[in-house]
Design brief:
- The structure holds 2 protein chains of 2 kinds.
- By secondary structure, chain A is an all-alpha fold.
- Chain A has a two-stranded antiparallel sheet with strand order 1-2.
- In chain A, strand 1 and strand 2 form a beta hairpin.
- By secondary structure, chain B is of the alpha/beta class.
- Chain B is built from 13 helices and 15 strands.
- In chain B, the strands form 2 sheets. In chain B, strands 7, 8, 9, 10, 11, 12, 13, 14 and 15 form a 9-stranded mixed β-sheet that branches.
- Chain B is globular and about 65 Å long.
- The two termini of chain B are 41 Å apart.
- Classes of the chains: A mainly alpha, B alpha/beta.
- At the A-B interface, helix 1, strand 2, helix 9 and helix 10 of A face helix 3, strand 8, helix 8, helix 9 and helix 10 of B.
Chain lengths: 289, 407
């Protein structure tokens, strides 16, 4: 019984990490109708930049802020310079090819700069060690990851539902053309959203680094899980990203606990069943596009 | 296959000949003897993963091969040696395609490399039917020394059985009589667990449980660590490699197990390529392997310092395997005097190759087509401010049994 509770906690940690990733991917899709296959690369880039900053300044919290800002800026430039040329429904293939190419280029640049050895990042000193919990020792940092995820979720929810910018974003999801007719600079909104989405990926990269380490190939591992999340939860909504993350995170953890040989299979079984029963995901923007 | 050479001298050969004559008559017969066998360079096709989670292994093996070849001036048995590298991407189908390219298009004399057992097994039939030599520099799948043995595949690395069978015996006598086992769910993982369990159980050791984790990517190992925590065994045996090794050992420390449950493992789990990343989570881990950075013999000392000078990194077992692969090929070229046309003659010479390697005495065993070599028990300790595997016992030489009688 205790083990079940602890495994639930493990599942929650993983879910929250996936949620920060999925929120970024979903935000970009909801607003811009673009599936960003370079999202995993931005995760890894964020993690590596975070690693370099932590090594330089020995300050995890600084890295947690600066890495997303740097990666978000890169995202802004990419959207401004290239991505905006290939918007629109008939460009879906171009978008997928472009972001996939971007992912490959980024992976090579990362390897060129940081090498291919596995790099680990220490948790900040305040969050190291374990706390006794139900007879075992549970790492403090993992509890902190749950808090990070919930906090980021809350900030995003308030930002989207309760602020003027959020209002513009929600209007943009419904009808971007009309919004631009009301005098909103929709191009700027798109650039901002793409920057925001990539910054979230980088944030997940810094948060995840002390748990998952950093190595070439992690970008696509994370991307595939994130895609599973948005397929299950549905693209374009924060709620979908959140609940989808919980489902996939728990499926992964309990799959590993009870059916370790089929753990990966289980995630994709969940994904396949959702695709069959509700192709637009459980909580997605169904049928709107 | 040999290319027809056009009759007569080309410009370079003419210049060379002139220079040789100028250098003195005595050199002429010697040079002629060397180049008469074959003037073409001997080509080694190196097939390794250079991308993905085992990229470090591919890079280390390549560096080892190049380092040995550089030491002997990139020639042996009268032939210049050339390397052609290809990325296997760790995928059996890609490796198959690249192997064909190396053999049929580049017309290499040997193929060397191969990191993962799955790729090795996938290539087995091709080399068997093409009658080309494959010198395996890593992948340890037992079957290639046993039921899948072919005269055309020889290993300079190890069989998965080799480090683990002696360790089961040692761990029973020196650590604990009960064990929980953890390994990735693929050929090598099962091989290693079976070998350890065989000798451990033969002494009366008890296995409390096993877990086989997703391969090649384990993801978050926390659920597996929690399972171990719940059982609280007196000892854990595991095998992991590359990024999974870092993830597993790091979580082991993160959940506070490092100080409480002794970790006994196949040496790859805490090898020099991953140890810096694992940090103090790996402290005290006991492992067995056919090499350690700190083996105290002159050849190893020279090898490790030269490798560090060359790459700026500490050597690892994969680099040693690459280095010895270079050496085996060079020795073979000397034995056949550079004549690589007769494969069965080369195979006869391979069986006898033995030399002092950085790992200690190295003998290519004719029965298992795998080295007979010493196995060392090592413990992760802090040495001069960095973590390394300190040799605590030399268990002596072991040879793969060549069948499944011992796990």
């Amino acid at each position: 019984m205790e083990t079940l509770v602890i495994q639930t906690l493990n599942g929650l940690v993983f879910s929250m990490l996936l949620f920060v990733m999925a929120a970024g991917l979903s935000l970009i899709f909801g607003q811009m109708d673009v599936i960003n296959l370079a999202h995993g690369a931005f995760y890894l880039l964020g993690g590596y930049i975070g690693f370099t900053m932590i090594r330089q300044y020995e300050n995890y919290w600084l890295a947690l802020i600066i890495a997303p800002v740097i990666v978000g800026t890169i995202g802004f430039i990419i959207e401004y310079a290239i991505l905006r040329r290939i918007y629109g429904r008939h460009h879906h293939l171009n978008q997928v090819l472009f972001t996939f190419g971007l992912a490959l280029v980024a992976a090579d640049l990362i390897r060129w700069n940081w090498g291919s050895y596995v790099i680990t990042v220490a948790a900040p000193p305040q969050l190291q060690g374990q706390v006794p919990f139900l007879g075992i020792q549970f790492p403090v940092y993992r509890l902190a990851v749950i808090t990070f995820g919930l906090t980021i979720g809350a900030i995003l929810w308030i930002g989207i539902e309760r602020t003027r910018i959020g209002m513009i974003l929600r209007a943009g999801v419904s009808d971007a053309k009309l919004l631009s007719g009301f005098g909103v600079n929709i191009q700027l909104v798109f650039s901002g959203v793409f920057a925001m989405g990539t910054a979230l990926a980088a944030l997940a990269g810094v948060i995840g680094a002390p748990i998952h380490s950093l190595y070439p190939g992690l970008d696509f591992e994370i991307l595939i899980l994130t895609l599973a999340v948005v397929v299950v939860g549905g693209l374009g909504t924060l709620k979908g990203a959140f609940l989808g993350s919980l489902l996939i995170g728990m499926a992964d953890t309990f799959g590993k606990t009870f059916l370790p040989e089929f753990a990966l299979f289980l995630i994709f079984a969940v994904m396949a069943s959702v695709l069959i029963l509700r192709p637009s995901g459980l909580w997605g923007l169904r049928g709107q596009r | 296959m040999t290319k027809e050479k056009p009759a007569g001298f080309n410009r370079r050969e003419l210049l060379q000949a002139t220079a040789t004559v100028a250098a003195g008559y005595t050199a002429v017969p010697l040079l002629a003897a060397c180049s008469s066998s074959d003037a073409r360079p001997a080509k080694i096709g190196v097939l390794l993963p250079y991308s993905g989670i085992y990229a470090v292994l591919g890079e280390s093996i390549t560096e080892g091969i190049r380092m040995y070849l550089d030491e002997i001036g990139n020639q042996s048995g009268g032939r210049r040696i050339e390397i052609i590298t290809e990325d296997s991407q760790m995928m059996p189908d890609v490796a198959q395609q690249k192997a064909r390219k190396l053999v049929e298009q580049d017309e290499v004399d040997f193929v060397a490399g191969i990191v993962s057992t799955g790729v090795l097994y996938g290539l087995r039939d091709y080399f068997d039917s093409a009658k080309k030599l494959l010198i395996c520099a890593n992948a340890g799948g037992n079957k290639i020394s046993r039921e899948l043995r072919t005269p055309y595949i020889w290993r300079t690395s190890f069989s998965n059985w080799q480090p683990n069978w002696p360790l089961g015996d040692w761990a029973y006598k020196n650590v604990a009589q009960k064990v929980f086992m953890s390994a990735p769910d693929y050929g090598a993982g099962h091989n290693m667990v079976d070998a350890f369990a065989n000798s451990f159980q033969a002494l009366g050791g008890q296995i409390l449980g096993m877990q086989f984790t997703p391969f090649p990517t384990m993801g978050d190992p926390a659920p597996f660590i929690t399972e171990i925590q719940g059982l609280d065994p007196p000892m854990v045996f595991c095998f992991y490699s590359g990024a999974s090794a870092v993830a597993f050992v790091q979580s082991y420390g993160e959940f506070g197990l490092t100080d409480n449950i002794p970790l006994v493992c196949a040496g790859f789990t805490v090898e020099e390529d991953v140890l810096p990343a694992q940090g103090t989570a790996a402290l005290g881990a006991l492992s067995s392997l056919h090499w350690s950075l700190l083996i105290d013999n002159p050849i190893n000392k020279r090898f490790t310092s030269a490798y560090k000078n060359r790459t700026g990194k500490d050597a690892n077992v994969f680099a040693v395997q690459g280095y010895d692969t270079g050496r085996v090929i060079a020795e073979l070229l000397i034995a056949v005097q550079g004549d690589t046309s007769d494969v069965s003659r080369m195979i006869d010479y391979l069986a006898g190759i033995s030399f002092d390697s950085p790992r200690g005495p190295f003998n290519l065993d004719s029965q298992s087509q795998n080295p007979s070599q010493h196995i060392y028990v090592r413990r992760v300790d802090e040495v001069d401010g960095a973590l390394h595997n300190v040799v605590i016992e030399d268990l002596g030489a072991f040879t793969d049994p060549g069948d499944n009688s011992l796990g």
